[in-house]
Design brief:
Number of strands: 18
Order of helices and strands: EEEEEEEEEEEEEEEEEE
Strand content: over 45%
CATH class of the largest domain: Mainly Beta
Oligomer: single chain
Distance between the termini: 52 Å
Shape: globular
Radius of gyration: 18 Å
CATH architecture of the largest domain: Sandwich
CATH topology of the largest domain: Immunoglobulin-like
Number of domains: 2
CATH superfamily of the largest domain: Immunoglobulins
Structural class: mainly beta
């Protein structure tokens, strides 16, 4: 009997230095490998995340792996999610006998430090018209570029770049956010963005990322 249900794996890297498998549609019960590769070599931690397709769902960490160590699958996902170690510049997430509720957007991320490379503001509920500042701090000392991204809450929405700034330089805010988003740029590995007079369409998940100099 051919399965009639499908799950959709949308793949989206959190930082520009990562390459992932293309988007795919899988029949329920099939198995799939999701590949993530990094363009340069260094000691690092790599991660897989899932943003389920259900409305108002939140980003969930599935896997983390330190260079040279066995990957750790988070509790609750061990039954049919497996992960390789970091091999060279790559890590593979395997979904065995996929279920419909595995549908969502899968994100790969990496850190070049022995732990989280970035710290950012916690989840926040904001009232319409309020002003909020999102804070992001890096743990390293190298001159780098820092970014804020937005993932809107709408189904099948794509990641949007909000602002980026090189250490010591001014912030470059993307055109569609220039009206109410402000930032003073990256200073001492810290990049903040202020959202003035929040509107309903500002709702979403905001991610901070950094890129070390090549």
């Amino acid at each position: 009997m051919v399965p009639c249900c499908f799950f959709v794996a949308m793949l989206a890297p959190l930082v520009l230095a990562l390459e992932q498998s293309p988007d795919m549609v899988i029949k329920e019960g099939q198995s799939v490998n999701l590949e993530c590769s990094q363009k340069k070599s260094s000691n690092r931690v790599m991660y897989w995340y899932l943003l389920p397709s259900e409305k108002n769902s939140s980003l969930t960490q599935l896997v983390y792996a330190y260079e040279g160590a066995t990957a750790v699958v988070e509790k609750g996902f061990e039954s049919h999610f497996k992960s390789s170690k970091i091999k060279g510049d790559s890590i593979t997430l395997s979904i065995e006998h996929a279920f419909l509720n595995d549908s969502g957007t899968y994100y790969c991320a990496e850190s070049e430090h022995s732990g989280w490379a970035l710290q950012q503001s916690p989840d926040t509920v904001v009232r319409l018209g309020d002003t909020i500042t999102l804070e992001c701090s890096g743990l390293g000392n190298a001159v780098k570029t820092m970014y804020w991204y937005k993932l809107p809450k709408e189904k099948d929405a794509g990641m949007q770049l909000v602002v980026f700034s090189v250490e010591g330089g001014k912030a470059d805010i993307e055109k569609e956010f220039q009206n109410r988003f402000q930032s003073s740029g990256t200073r001492n590995n810290h990049l903040a963005v202020q959202i003035q007079h929040a509107l309903l369409n500002d709702t979403g998940t905001y991610f901070c990322a950094e890129q070390d100099p090549q």
